Automatic annotation (TrEMBL):
Stretch list, region Disordered: 207-226
PANTHER family, per the entry: DIPEPTIDYL PEPTIDASE FAMILY MEMBER 6, SERINE PEPTIDASE S9 FAMILY MEMBER
SUPFAM superfamilies: alpha/beta-Hydrolases (SSF53474), DPP6 N-terminal domain-like (SSF82171)
Coiled-coil portions: none
Organism: Flavobacterium nackdongense
PROSITE patterns: PRO_ENDOPEP_SER
Domain Peptidase S9 prolyl oligopeptidase catalytic, first and last residues per copy: 451-657
InterPro entries: 6-blade_b-propeller_TolB-like, AB_hydrolase_fold, Pept_S9_AS, Peptidase_S9_cat, WD40
Name under which the protein is recorded: Acyl-peptide hydrolase
Length: 659
């Protein structure tokens, strides 16, 4: 073959290789490609990790979750279920031979526990719960019984005319659940051999998080057994012998909240999370790590001096310390706390976000982790280093070019230093001013962190610099930073957003003539507050927000917040009026704004968006209202998720991409 022919072959081969490796920007339809991993569980022998993988069928417009497992060495990955209905809550039998899960497959009206041989084969229905909704379950250590929590079900017999919903509760509305009647969730004991179900708890109280003692003799659980559980956020740890008609013993007496309980390996102690405050209302609080004797008594606070939220407590193999995830200034890291002297040792950190923690029989740990460029995957945590086990996100990422993410600190008008994140579009020219969207997180108790954020990446893919502002009220900066906005909404948070905007304009990053703002939930609320305070934003997208606070008492699910933060309207109406300034000063707003909300949202009901839309229409400010049918506070319908991204981009492009 002649040299020129060889060169031509090599040239065209190189061109083909280059074309197949060209990366593109995110687009709204990519919501169909992103997979979600959750509920990882290590097998008793440590050889396998079971988990759920959620995927989208774009043709059916349906999200479905299946059970998978991956070997501990990461070399084998096996899909165990593949039914049209979702499976969730995988758990191993204590002997490791079986995997159980929860599903309403085969046309069941409610969820049941199913069991399958881990080596394969068809799953079999284990439980047959006829009256009630299964909430949670856990195998006994000897594998002969299962502890369950089941929510009482009202009479659902089909009738031509539905019965009226009769309500007598203080807290009577909740997103997804709807109107709240008295349907307590109780603890039950299921015998696998006889299929007999015994009721362990009774009364007008809810039980949750059942956990067996290591010797299988007792079950610990959480319950609010105060006089009127609706009027506080209390939960305590209780223990009951694993048999019918046994007495219940109260272990903790904190009037705040106790949660996430875990027995020590020897059964002598229980690790758990406790609210910092003993108050009956703990909106702006952060969990601290505690241990208490399994017989009760004075608990020991292990993270008392940390001033950061702690989550996912898990005992080490020896029982001498407790591992946990710590939320800290845009990151979440893994730390170990001594159960004797409370000394903390940071195990693994960095600009990333750890979530799930599960102990491996070897003494190592399993973690879930994501970073700014990688959606959540499952990892082994060994000797302070992580080793990736699952690789489900590779197919999603291989063709994409993503925005780079960097942290920056801005100073607000009152001198407060605020931590933020900046998403720079891929291939952005350094030194060139960019149209910039401030996408504000909800909560308000939460934080923007170095984890994968599809919304901000999607906006950046359209050529925008995108900003996450950890305004006051966010966690990760300490309790005082979080609590300072209590009863003072739309004040300091707006100062922090505007301070971040000033910083980026001064640095020549943000184009001051092309600024946009948006968010969902409290992010939507702050969008309304910000455009009512400052006219610099040329476009806004307010999702599931509210601006006329004075009209919301009894309309949403936050009755405890209203009564405890700003008081009852007939006693403190001036405060309600002051907090309603975006609506009452709507005639001073200049920003074209789209409003979005789920039709069935009981968290921040549609009326909040409808009022602002109507005000804008009446005044003549460019606006639109998008209501997603059948959706609650979170938009879960895949086609609606895609639609929301498309509408964001169309709206912002109309006002911010003009030359």
């Amino acid at each position: 073959m002649k040299p020129i022919a060889i060169l031509l072959i090599l040239f065209f081969a190189g061109q083909t290789f280059a074309q197949t490796n060209v990366k593109r920007n995110l687009k709204p339809s990519d919501v169909y490609r992103l997979q979600n991993l959750s509920d990882p569980r290590v097998s008793p022998d440590g050889s396998w990790v079971a988990y759920t993988l959620s995927t989208v069928d774009s043709v059916k417009n349906k999200r479905n979750s299946d059970i998978w497992m991956v070997s501990w060495d990461g070399k084998e990955s096996i899909q165990l279920t593949n039914s049209p209905e979702s499976e969730s809550q995988p758990n191993w039998s204590p002997d490791g031979k079986y995997l159980s899960f929860v599903s309403s497959r085969n046309g069941l009206k409610g969820s049941q526990i199913w069991i399958m041989n881990r080596r394969g084969g068809e799953a079999k229905q284990l439980t047959d719960i006829k009256k009630g909704d299964l909430d949670d379950y856990e195998w006994s250590p000897d594998g002969t019984k299962i502890a369950l929590t089941i929510k009482t079900q009202l009479d659902t017999a089909k009738v031509k005319t539905p019965k009226p919903i009769v309500i007598d509760r203080y807290h009577f509305k909740q997103d997804i659940e709807g109107y709240l009647t008295r349907k307590p969730t109780h603890l039950y004991l299921y015998d696998i051999a006889t299929k007999k179900m015994d009721t362990l708890t009774k009364g007008n109280f809810d039980e949750k998080e059942p956990k067996w003692s290591p010797d299988g003799s007792k079950i610990a659980f959480l319950s609010n057994r105060s006089t009127d559980p609706d009027r506080n956020e209390n939960t305590d740890i209780w223990v009951i012998d694993a048999k019918k008609d046994a007495a219940i013993k109260q272990i903790t007496t904190w009037t705040g909240s106790d949660t996430s309980l875990q027995w020590s390996p020897d059964g002598k102690q229980i690790a758990y999370l406790r609210s910092t405050s003993p108050d009956n209302y703990i909106m702006y609080d952060q969990n601290v790590l505690c241990v208490v004797s399994s017989n009760g008594g004075e608990p020991k606070v292990l993270s008392k001096t940390l001033d950061r939220p702690v989550g996912s407590p898990r005992w080490t193999q020896t029982g001498s310390s407790v591992m946990a995830v710590v939320t800290d200034d845009r990151t979440r890291y893994v730390a170990e706390f001594s159960a004797t002297d409370a000394k903390m040792n940071k195990i693994v950190s960095g600009n990333r976000s750890f979530t799930t923690l599960e102990r491996h029989p070897s003494g190592s740990f399993l973690v879930s982790m994501s970073d700014s460029q990688t959606p959540t995957e499952i990892y082994a945590l060994e000797g302070g280093a992580v080793r990736r086990l699952t690789k489900h996100q590779d197919a999603f990422l291989e063709k994409l070019q993503l925005a780079s993410v960097e942290g920056f600190t801005s100073k607000s008008k009152d001198g407060m230093l605020v931590s933020n994140l900046l998403y720079r579009p891929a291939n952005a020219v350094i030194g060139k001013k960019l149209p910039t969207i401030f996408y504000i997180h909800g909560g308000p108790v939460g934080q923007d962190e170095y984890s994968f954020d599809l919304t901000r990446q999607m906006l950046a893919a359209a050529g925008y610099a995108v900003v996450g502002v950890n305004y006051r009220g966010s966690n990760g900066r300490g309790l005082d930073f979080c609590k300072v906005i209590s009863g003072d909404w739309g004040n300091k948070e707006v100062l922090d957003i505007l301070g971040a905007a000033d910083y980026l304009v001064q640095k020549g990053i943000a184009d001051p003539d092309k600024l946009g703002i948006g968010g969902w939930s409290y992010g939507g609320i702050l969008t309304d507050y910000t455009i009512a305070t400052d006219t610099r934003f040329k476009a806004a997208a307010s999702g599931a927000g509210v601006a006329m606070v004075s009209s919301m008492y009894g309309v949403d699910q936050y009755i405890l917040q209203y009564d405890n933060e700003i008081g009852q309207p007939w006693k403190n109406f001036d405060k309600y009026i002051a907090l309603s300034y975006p609506f009452l000063k709507a005639n001073k707003i200049k920003t074209p704004t789209q409003f979005m909300v789920g039709e069935s949202d009981f968290n921040v009901p549609a009326v909040g968006s409808e009022q602002m839309y109507q005000a804008f229409k009446s005044i003549g400010i460019p606006t639109e209202l998008i209501i997603y049918p059948g959706q609650f506070h979170g938009i879960t319908n895949p086609s609606f998720q895609k639609d929301r991204f498309e509408r964001y981009l169309t709206w912002f492009n109309t006002y911010l991409m003009k030359k």
